[in-house]
Design a protein that fits this description.
single chain, mainly alpha, Rna Polymerase Sigma Factor, Chain: A, Arc Repressor Mutant, subunit A, two-stranded antiparallel sheet, about 60% helix
Length: about 220
Amino acid sequence: MQVVTVVPRQGYSQSAMTLSESPRQPRAGVPSEERESFFEREVMQHLDALYRTALRMTRNPQDAEDLIQETMLRAFRFLDRFEPGTNLRAWLFKILTNTYINRYRKASSEPRVDSLDDSDGDLSLYRYLDSEAASRGGSVEAQVLDRFAEQDIKTAIEALPPQYRITVLLADVEGFSYNDIAEITNVKKGTVMSRLFRGRRLLQKALIDQAKSAGFAGGKQ
C-alpha cells in the first residue's frame, strides 16, 4: 500500500493529511512508480492556491480543509489519467470544483439572485464613479476597488451566489482563461463569459452598497 503524507503549507491547518491508495494498473498518465515523487514535486506546489479557492467556495475553514482532503485524495488516485505536459493546475482545479459541486449541491440552497436592473437611485454612485473614472482614463471597477480593503473585496466575493462565485474566483483571483474555466466547470465558454459578467456586476453592486453605507454618495467626494 502506498502512503503519501501531505504537509500543509501557509494558510492551511497544521494537521497532516494521509492519502492511502492501493496500487492500480497505470494508464497513459503518470506511471505508478512515479506517482509519489510527481505528487510531491508537482501537485503539492498548488496546495495554497487550491486551499485559498476552497475557502472562498465553502466560506468555512473546516469545510475547506475537508474539501481539500478529498480533492488531494482524488488527484493522487487519478494521476494515472493525467497526461504529463498538459495543464496540471487546471486539472487540479477541475477536480476541486467537481468535488465542491458534488459535496455541496444537495446540502446548500443557492441564494436568490436579485435583479440587476438600473432602478432609480440604485446605481447612482456607480454612474458617478463611471463618469469620474472615464474623465481620468480609468475604469469604474478600479475606482470602486481602490476604495476598499482587500478583506472587503474577499467578503463581497464570498457572498456571491455559488455559480458566479466560482467563476469570479477562477477568473479574477486565480487568473484562468475563459477556455480553462469552461473546461474546469464543464460549461460552454459563452456561459463562462455570461456568469463572469453577471458575477462582476453583482460584486460591483455589493461594493457600491458598502460605499453608500460608508458615506460615499453620488456626486460627492
